[in-house]
Amino acid sequence: MYVPFDDLPEDSRIWIYQSNRKFSDEEFSAIELDLQDFLKDWAAHGTSLESSYLLKYNRFIIIAVNQEVQAATGCSIDSSVEFIQSLERKYEVDLLDKMNVTFKQGEHIAHKPLIDFKKMVKDKSVTANTIVFNNLVNSIQEFNESWEVLAEDSWHSRFF
Hints:
Elements lengths: L12 E6 L6 H17 L1 E2 L2 E2 L2 E6 L3 E6 L8 H18 L8 E6 L2 E6 H9 L8 E3 L6 H7 L1 E3 L10
Antiparallel strand pairs: 1-5, 2-3, 4-5, 6-7, 8-9
């Protein structure tokens, strides 16, 4: 069951998917409709999941579920991954590769393979003060507090 993102409690579980390229506005509008269709019927063991999404920077898809109502289970998580994989095929993007880093360079959002990001650190093209997207956050509260952070305050800090 789809609900507005702001209506979910802060301890709701989230999954963040980053695209290896920026989506066009038209693509993001279509993805929004696809997400609404998927979430209205998303269920775990026959019980609707109170869920929502956020789309950020024409690059990130964030799916959230209120686990106080019904927890996402293996099968429901699998169905969400299948949905994301369908978006990958439809838009010819990579949304599941966790070995990529997305970060801000001024107003620009950059996306690099982890190996290239490490090289940029070595070359001082990015610093501990670079804003990175910490896609390992697990709840809306963590998302609000620790998603866009200085590299030195995230898992990226080990590269500095």
